[in-house]
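pasting for ref
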Amino acid sequence: MDEFKLETVEAEPFGFLRLEASLAEMSRTIGEGFIRLGELFGKADVKMAGAPYAHYISFEGSKAIFELGFPIAGVQEERLRMAGVEIGRTPDGQVLKGIHMGPYETVSKTYDSMGADLKRRHLQGTPDMWERYYSPPGTPPEKTMTEVIWPIAAAGPMSAPSPA
């Protein structure tokens, strides 16, 4: 996918779990994390208010730190906290969005294309990125849809490259 949209978004409340995993264990950890998160939402008697998100905070060596969560209605925050769910907010401000269709193992190609698109626009993405998952478990890999959301650094545009 090489068509990306620059949009301004408003943050929404996000109930999440913060996790850490080796890159080799990430897929398993994400699956188990969403199961655990579903159990905690059930314990709190709270319904998810939209498709799940993953917020990738950092990659250090062979380790990743990330948050898995769902958008929530603000009035549910205290019940979720009591159940062990952390509360945060989704991105706010300018973001570059794109849709990745296909197996999750190839989403890095979308990130590479988005990075090139940011460079063409003379923009800088933040170090963290978000993904929103629209396909339920068991969806055939070629039909899996992931929205990639890359916040734009608050500093705004990078300086334009010098003419050669």
